[in-house]
Amino acid sequence: MLNTNSNETIQKIYLLGEDELKTFVDETVDALLDSEKMLWYQLIDISNKATGSKPTAKFLSQTKQIVNELGEEKFAKIVSEFFKFIVKYKEVEKTNTYTSGGREHSYNYYEFLNSINLDSMKGFVWICCLLSDNSILNAVADLSERCYRKIPQKGPAAMGLGNACLYTLYKSEGMTGIGLLSRLKLRIKQSSTQTLIEKYLWETANEKGVSIHEIEDISADDFGLIDGKQAVKFGDYTAELSIQDIGKTEIRWIKPDGSPQKTVPAFVTEKYAAELKSLKENAKNIEKMLSAHRDRIDRMFRTERKMTFEHFAQYYLNHGLIGFIAQKIIWNFEFEGKTQPAVYQKNRWICNEGIPVEIPENTVVSLWHPAVSSVKEVKAWRDFINTIQLKQPVKQAYREIYILTDAELNTKSYSNRMAAHLLKQHQFNMLAKTRGWKYALLGCYDDGRENEMAELRLTEHNLKAQFWVCAVEADNAFNDTGIWNYVSTDQIRFTKLDDDKTTLDLIDVPAVPFSEVLRDVDLFVGVASVGNDPQWIDSGGGLPQYRNYWQAYSFGELSEVAKTRKEILERIIPRLKIAKVAEIRDKFLVIRGKLRTYKIHIGSTNILMEPNDQYLCIVPDRREKDYTQNIFLPFEGDSGLSVVLSKAFLLADDDKITDTTITSQINRKQ
Prior knowledge:
Shape: globular
Strand order of the largest sheet: 9-13-10-11-12
Radius of gyration: 28 Å
């Protein structure tokens, strides 16, 4: 503990490393009252000595006593500023120059904060598990994301500090921390971190005697929302926070007489600055968590999970946050040996004919899945959600389905449906981890691995899915860290969880997990294939032997995802202003411009120009207008659809294009 001398002069103790974090912390603490400074110096002293992967009982006892004396609210306010500083801090690129063999050499490297100070911050993170303040737990979750964000040539910025954040969320009181762990599980992609998060979730589930799904349900914060809205008083004025869409909220101001106020009232920023800041932070947290729960529910399709109506009503249908998603999804209700699919509209359940249906409270609830529904039923649901203009937060009625083909029945134990594609390995790796697959990047070195594959555990079905890939080894086809730029795809196989050496016959794999696995792999191919890169053909990616693949993929048969996109285009094109110059022709959206006619491939979004099928390279600009914003779509987000439409609108007025990289191609005759 810290001592003072007889003159009551405070002995100052600071972080030990020299960096900008030390300066910020020192200045923040030095600006406090003397009585508070002494306590903070004690905390810094203890945290500087903190070691290991988790706090000791002595550490927690000492720091709890100091925090109690300081006051939890004061501690949380200051320490959250420390965390925010780290979150916002950007690594610095530096150049090192040295002389060797009489010649001067230089290389660039990246420098983050001092590792000694980051280790000291672990102590402050651990202390937060003693607090009951939800806002500080959100700050810890944000800090963990920053810690796991990779720095070029180094890896995660601060793995040890990130692990301390996860421990604190796991050990914190209540279920808020566990809910944040569930969110981080969907956002952090490192395999070791995913494993650690899953360990904490499983341990919590075992402690509570429930399933991991129930833990994620119970821990979901509703943020004080009722039917997706929250009213907060600021004097006589009211701020109404409401969910507008996945990842999007809105704050509306209402005057005392009930009329709308366009901007934040001046007195609010003056008298209620802290409360206003809290409201805005709450809105951001709602946006993050809503997106996380959308992704969590999307993964539930592969589990075929069932729950009681009571559980469903409490944690889904009537939940202030998740209800926004649940009320736009088709659910199956099983009772008395019958199954009734229905969707919730205007406070009642209706079937795909628009007829209200009664749902008994003793029913069993699950997600409706098109893979185990008839073609007639799937079409009926698609027509119905288009009729009522229901935008589903996840792809459900229009979800791609994959059933066994004759070729797969012949190969029996493996599928070659997604084989022989060339993928950008880093993009594939990111997509795989986003969907919950385990994959380790392949490098031009021997790491002792026997098999090269991405794996997905399907615990509910006691299955493991394997997607085999092979590194494409070619001259200069690897990056500075020795990781191959490309992989080629191979077989999809299924095994039991406890026996990954024995491959199952595909006919023995249940329809839903089979369809979901192939849907994931189709996504990997559809997004990460070099065939989607309009510039790859020019560079060849250093792989001229794959030029034929690029041509075949860019303008070849449509994948299941692209077939769904085509169906949507067939519905919306007649309602667009380009309708008179647009038509769907086989695999293409054909646009008759003023200068030429263009064929936009609905899958890859690449373009051919008539009459000679001359290739037109247009690189999408992410800053361009999203042409799907004001168009009704029956499901959330299809970036490929947006690219197809943006190119269509651009080329319909090809005589107005000023970009010379495009006009030079249009005007060039071959």
